[in-house]
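Last lecture ended with a question: if I hand you only a sequence, what can you say about the shape of the protein? Today we answer it with a concrete record. The protein is biotin synthase. Below, first the input exactly as provided, then the predicted structure, then a couple of comments.
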Amino acid sequence: MRINNINMLTHQSTNELLRSPRTTGDEGRIDNGQFIMRTSSSISRSLGALRLQAVQTPRAHASRAWHRQMHAAAAVVEDIPLPQTPPPSSAATSHNTTATTKHDAQRIFRDALAATEPRNTWTREEISAIYYQPLMDLAYQAGSVHRRFHNPAEVQLCTLMNIKVGGCSEDCSYCAQSTRYQKETKLEAKRVETVESVLAAAAKAKANGSTRFCMGAAWRDMRGRKNSLRNIKSMVEGVKGMGMEVCVTLGMIDAEQARELKTAGLTAYNHNVDTSREFYPSVISTRTYDERLQTLSHVRDAGISVCSGGILGLGETSEDRVGLLHTVSTLPSHPESFPVNALVPIKGTPLGDREPVKFTAMLRTISTARILMPATIIRIAAGRKTMSEEQQAMCFMAGANAIFTGEKMLTTDCNGWDEDNAMFGRWGLEPMKSFQKSKQPSADIGMAA
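The predicted structure:
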């Protein structure tokens, strides 16, 4: 039954991509026939669905023009720079550079596939070599690594609750909860939710299949919030008592506050770095990049799992995405969770008029993250509501294995439980259980059992 579901997914994912105008017609882009063959083959290999026998043009006959076409096919939907046709005098140099980059990516993939434990010594050059590969090769490699460290049929259902809405003093350009944009966003600030209301929401989430409950509060830090911290610890204890994983995102915390949350039973603390260090000042001025990293250090030292990722679509370049991945993958230890958010533009915020991020930026980031951080749970977070099922399925194949589901994210819409459960049934996916650890690396990257 699962093979049939995956075969159906393969055909529908391919058809979905082919319907997009970005894969047809334009000069320098890959033609439909070649795109069908490479898409079908890579998806088939990544799933182990050997029934689908796609025919590929042999690599031995590839030319520099072929490489440019493949790069163009991946780049037309995001800002990856396309290599220009070199003048005759530099043709050999260009060919050697392309071959070296390709060789580096293949070597990194082989090392990642053979790894028995995560590595946190990645260089930006290595991450770039992974990120800028032809997209189908990248997704295939990520799926192969994913199958060594995780059950590819399992995806965790997480639910997020905003326990303190609005009134934040920070100036994050994407966030409707800042007091600086309140006049334009019309978002009304509210007091902290009661322990009883939060536990009722957690119980509802559990009844609908969620195994992780996350709580977010809109403020800069926990300084001087002793009463709120006491109530939040009661929330943590109550949710943990239901047998659920529990995560909070409360802004900056110090070492003592982290220890108190650990004692209460907190599973994970979310504190995103958002983007690259270089681009970060363009998005936020009221909290430094190093302050974010300091909070992650307090969390890690307290023995709490770190949840840290980023937001795509802030106006960053692909190099900034490489920078984000470099920051997170070279932390002293890899985060337990890496959430990937697509900006949901909110009218009234400085980024309220931005165009949505292209899907392939999401797919490239997820795929690269999976190769860099093989044991980490990769969570598709904000913005999933705008993705088709076929796009979500490609993310799962490339290594994403958690989603946020329920009634709402913080201030934006979320896919509902019924919708996601139906999708799981169509694709042969199963909800991940609470506190399930990543399996030990396996040599078997075939079909899930």
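Comments.
1. The beta strands are 154-164, 212-217, 245-249, 268-270, 305-307, 310-312, 337-342, 377-380, 402-404, 430-431.
2. The longest helix spans residues 91-114.
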